[in-house]
# Entry
Amino acid sequence: MGKITRRHFFYGSLLASAVPMGGFGSTPSLKALGYKSPNEKLNIASIGAGGKAASDIRGCAQTENIIALCDVDEVRAEKTYKEYAKLPKYKDFRVMLDRQEKDIDAVIVTIPDFMHATAAIHAMERGKHVYVQKPLAHTVWECRALAKAAEKYKVATQMGNQGYSNEGTRQCAEMIWSGEIGNVTEVHAWTNRPVWPQGLPDLPPEAAIPPTLDWDLWLGIQKYRPYSPKYCPFAWRGFFDFGCGALGDMACHILGAPNMALRLGAPTSVECISQKGTSPYYYPSEAVIRFDFPARGDMPPVKIFWHDAMMEQPQIQGVPPGEILGDLPRSRAGHPREGLTPPEHQIIGGVFTDAFFNPAPEPAPPPPRPEPTTPAEQKEAEIGRRIAHGSNGSLFIGDKGMITTGTYGEWTRLVPVEKMRDYHFPPEFLTRSPGHYRDWIRACKGGEPACSNFSVSAPFTEWITLGALSLRFPGKLEWDSEKMRVTNNSDVDKLMKPTFRSGWHLS
# Structure
């Protein structure tokens, strides 16, 4: 731990307002509201059972009870359904919530972006705590509706951006608040996504609906359209109507450290400054977006650049040649934080150590997995191979230096990395997370709010969804956050709120 110097006191007023007294949220302890004892297990239902939902279920099942499962796709959910063979299973989450309302304490929502808010609010209005995968919602209006619902129903909430629980994310914030790189005026963040089709000129052709998929329920609030396997289960993120593109997939992770460290509120403007592969239906195949944020307390205005489809590390002015930015290769990554108890392995990624300067031999590759046999498995395997290539991370540029972090805020380090030899991180001002699921579970039982609860994650996701909108309109979009409108383009305002198909509603 580094020595406290004058620069720490310089940032005293900043720190006082950076994190509320009760933790990362804005609500008080929930113990007085009749929540479960920390020794009691929560009864958790999951909306979504395949794909990412399966890992969310596993994360919560380490310590809690899983009591009901829901998925519109029997094939996608098959492995989880076999693991929990005796549990009741549903296709319509509304039916599950009605039938088992008295049994359920909390709900996981891990389904496509456009249905997050609808499912979560149906659960919250019944008094259920909710864990919602990133991005929190599909539109700005839904982000605000979720924050209001969480406050109204007094439930514990968490968005599934695991990096917000990382040690490295907190180290990054503390280094910046201590003045390590001075005033930060520019941040670059980048990802190798999309690894699914984007920028195509036409909608996919119609195909027969598999008997194992309830296509009407999958469409949910959206207007009915013919089924195509090009929509689900993998490529829905690339469509305007269903996802938020590469931003929705990765920005809630990669921009988590900038959001926390720079206390980013609402931007004043957002602009897509370049893109390739435009389409009336899909997000572009490649894009660069600029967000401008005003001064925040002692912090100056800052511009945030988002780069996607990065198959190589970005070339950024001022970075010494040969520097590794963002994620570290396995041989240079060092070791995860020592002394973690089993639930804490929910924290993704490691912390930077001196092992970087003594790289270990590349570990032996894991044994090959069985070759995929079904078309769905083959698609998933191909996406996995694409994800393994390319670059992800962020770079903070201050008037006294630079800091880079990995995908989830891990391996936080100064640039050039030589400055990290014998480096002592600043004192720990922020409380450390016991793990992203554990953080939420603790809040459900009356503990302090989770680190990415909706009072934090809704404003964060709001400007990310605004960035996704900027991909559909040329020029700079001037944003009035208080009035929730783009002041120089009324066409954008029409997309701030979703339309709901007959039979669907938020409340």
Remarks:
- The chain has two domains: 22-162+446-453, 164-429+461-493.
- The two ends are 49 Å apart (CA to CA).
- Residues 22-162+446-453 form a domain with the Rossmann fold fold (CATH 3.40.50.720).
- The chain is about 25% helix and 15% strand.
